[in-house]
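From: lab user (bench 3)
To: helpdesk
Subject: output format question, protein + adenosine-5'-triphosphate

Hello, I'm new to running complex predictions and I'm not sure whether the block I got back is the full result or only part of it. Here's what I submitted:
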Amino acid sequence: MALLTCEGVTRTFGGMVAVNEVDLHVNEGEIVGLIGPNGSGKSTMVNLITGVLPPTSGRIMFDGRDITGLPSWKINRRGISRTFQLLRLFKSLSVADNISMPLHPRHRAGLLASILGRSEATAEDEASYAQACELLDLFELRAFADRPASDLSIGQQRMVELARGIIVNPKLFVLDEPAAGLSPPNVDKLIALIRRLRDERGITILLVEHVMRVVQELCDRVIVLDYGTKIADGPPREVSEDPKVVEAYIGGGKVSRRARA
Ligand SMILES: Nc1ncnc2c1ncn2[C@@H]1O[C@H](COP(=O)(O)OP(=O)(O)OP(=O)(O)O)[C@@H](O)[C@H]1O
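Helpdesk reply: Thanks, we reran it on our side. This is the complete output you should expect:
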């Protein structure tokens, strides 16, 4: 069953069409890759799905409801979580605090009570800390719970970003280039971890990724964008042999192709 459906989704910036009439769906329990040359519209598509940007036209349905144009915090509450291309950790905060941060606005006691140090806030803080530690066990980073995020390597920081994304128990987790800058052993760890998120926690995954090994090994299905238009949608092996996809990549992305034009 489709958890996410985009119908005729378009986004323009001035006269430039970044995403052009895209139809796509992600089924419950699937790991779907969203790929394409530089500038093909992947990040814009992610921003439209997660409410960072409203579409210019088209409709986005999630879990049976229309989420088109909702702000990102509402979309997050409906069950879509995401990571960003650039790491967004608070380096001086502890690893556990970074992971539990998305829980705080949801707490009954809220930020003010937390500042005033009321006991209800303390109980919720303890519960958040325990949840963060449980995820740190899963990510094999438990020993770092109380250390500042700045003590972590880039690979470990990416894991912390993933943990922060799933602490709210999303139905759909959208990952924007999670393998960027990772060493090959860390890419292996990432692949295993994302698979566990789906298999053990039932989280559906939409993954933007340039590292093709991740896409080939992990994805059930791959959607390809080129110049904002969907040009392929199918199993990874089939898509990688599709002449339109080969041409899009050989064409080299927006810089060289627009220069050629
Ligand atoms: N806020 C914006 N204002 C104007 N143009 C934008 C904006 N965001 C994206 N674009 C343009 O939209 C097009 C698609 O960009 P987008 O970042 O979505 O592509 P991408 O496939 O994610 O690229 P990359 O792989 O390099 O991250 C590009 O031509 C980009 O310059």
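A quick orientation on your result: The pocket of adenosine-5'-triphosphate is lined by residues 13, 16, 18, 36, 38-44, 254 (CB under 6 Å). Let us know if anything else is unclear.
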